Amino acid sequence: MHKRTYLSIFTVLLALLPCFATGTPPHALPNQNSGAQAESRIPRFLIEDLSPTEWRAEHERTRASLGDETYLALRKSEIDQKMRSSNDVLNDMIKAGQWKFPPVGNDVKPDRIGFGDGRVFDVGIKHGVPDYITDAMYATYGVGAGARSVPEEWLEFEVPIEKLKEEREQREKERQEALEMENTKILDGRYSVRDIDMGCFLNLESS
Hints:
The longest helix has 28 residues, at 68-95. The protein has helices spanning 3-22, 32-39, 52-66, 68-95, 131-140, 161-187, 199-202; strands spanning 112-114, 120-122. The chain has a two-stranded antiparallel sheet with strand order 1-2. It has seven helices and two strands; from the N terminus they run H-H-H-H-E-E-H-H-H. It has one domain (1-207). Strand 1 and strand 2 form a beta hairpin. Helix content is 54%, strand content 3%. By secondary structure, it is mainly alpha-helical.
């Protein structure tokens, strides 16, 4: 599954989180037709209309016929199409004011700053960096300064290359584990477009 799919999934899940947590959407659509119009733009696949028994039979028949590799490609393609379309619809709804999020404060800042040569520095009280150094780092970041020109007192807060490498390897390991888990669920028939329900934010009642 490529990067856009992961971004789409993250965006949609972020939007649906209030639904899962409370059972109700944070805001209603302006009118009842909006949800139907949005839903019509999201592809619907034949397997979504099968009963559980019919789906199990279809899953086993298709997997046996295509083989695991081709079967995975088929189901992932369906999931990707649905998630990309859902993400596009959600973005359009946000732009049209049909779906609103709570305001996000502009005081949220990263706790690391990277420079063009690949060097990375911790910032913020979380890492024990004094406020005056943190403020100086934020002020310097983005104005074209290179890591070679940083003050000597910043150097103790540089993240070691070995640690950055370990973190990258850990992220890759977690990504691979998640991918393997997803593949297993698809091959078991436990994950498909049948399990992606966008109705939480599409079929809302007007306020």
